[in-house]
Design a protein that fits this description.
One of its GO terms (biological process) is cellular response to virus. Keywords: Glycoprotein, Secreted, Signal. It contains one helix and 24 strands. By secondary structure, it is mainly beta. Among the domains are: about 45 residues; about 35 residues; about 30 residues, Complement Module, domain 1; about 45 residues, no CATH class. A hairpin with a 2-residue loop joins strand 12 and strand 13. The longest helix is centred in the middle third of the chain and has 4 residues. It starts with 9 loop residues before the first strand and ends with a strand.
Length: about 270
């Protein structure tokens, strides 16, 4: 390739070929790598041989001194040292499950629970005899009991009721209202009572649920000179006439207040 080489010289060609000059000829062979570790990293860019500075474990590159757990190690801990991966697993006692800290790491047979003359399997839930308000569970050979949780109630204490055989209290229905209480004047009206709150054109009634419903009266009858009766909503057009502040009955005649030569008569139509 245009480069002189001394007899016996060795060099590396691209593609990791190891070449030597012998008797005027170039002899090349694939470079052989001696890897003195169990989990070497692939050769770095431009290199030919894997490196033992770090580890390649399950397709994941680990740095020198890295401590990790394999994906299915079941609490196994591994460490990368000089390209070698060493793993340690917890010591599991035979038979029943060990302490809770090792229960998830060791394959074991959960212990059964003997409670009040009965045997329960691991994880079984049950109630005490005659007490449905207490729930017990068998965990690793031991029984833990607790009261059945009750929901939060949004009613006052005097409306709560605990029925026979029930574990949790419930809210009683509030008593049906017997009337309507008005805060503005402190008067209580019985259910069905009708009254006027001060305006003769407005009537109110006390509903069965304790609420007050009011409705106004619309006056449709009109006349030029109506008689307004105190306490009555609509003016009265059938009783007579109102003229200049005076009330005259039907067919009554009277002099005009504007012209004494004029005579007026009240006609109800």
């Amino acid at each position: 390739r245009g480069i002189p080489r001394e007899p016996g010289a060795r060099w590396t060609e691209p593609g990791c070929q190891s070449c030597t000059c012998q008797g005027g000829r170039v002899l090349c062979d694939a470079m052989s790598c001696s890897v003195p570790c169990s989990h070497p990293l692939p050769a770095p860019a431009g290199g030919c041989c894997p490196t033992c500075t770090g580890c390649l474990h399950e397709g994941v590159a680990r740095a020198e001194g890295d401590v990790f757990s394999p994906s299915d190690g079941n609490c196994t801990v591994c460490v990368c040292l000089a390209g070698n991966v060493s793993c340690l697993s917890p010591e599991c006692p035979p038979g029943s499950c060990p302490s809770p800290s090792l229960a998830d790491c060791c394959s074991c047979t959960p212990e059964k629970c003997n409670f009040r003359g009965r045997t329960y399997t691991h994880g079984a839930r049950f109630s005490l005899d005659g007490d449905d308000c207490t729930t017990c569970v068998c965990q690793g050979g031991e029984v833990e009991c607790s009261f059945t949780p009750c929901p939060m109630l949004d009613c006052p204490q005097h409306q709560r009721h605990l029925g026979p055989g029930q574990c949790c209290s419930t809210c009683r229905d509030p008593p049906a209202p017997t009337g309507c209480f008005l805060d503005d004047n402190g008067v209580e009206f019985p259910v069905g009572q009708i009254w006027s709150p001060g305006d003769p054109c407005e009537l109110c009634i006390c509903q069965a649920d304790g609420s007050v419903s009011c409705q106004r009266t619309d006056c449709v009858e009109t006349c030029p000179y109506p008689i307004r009766i105190p306490g009555q909503c609509c003016p009265d057009c059938s009783a007579g006439c109102t003229y200049m502040g005076r009330i005259f009955s039907n067919n009554e005649t009277f002099p005009s207040a504007l012209d004494p030569c004029l005579s007026c008569i009240c006609l109800v139509r």
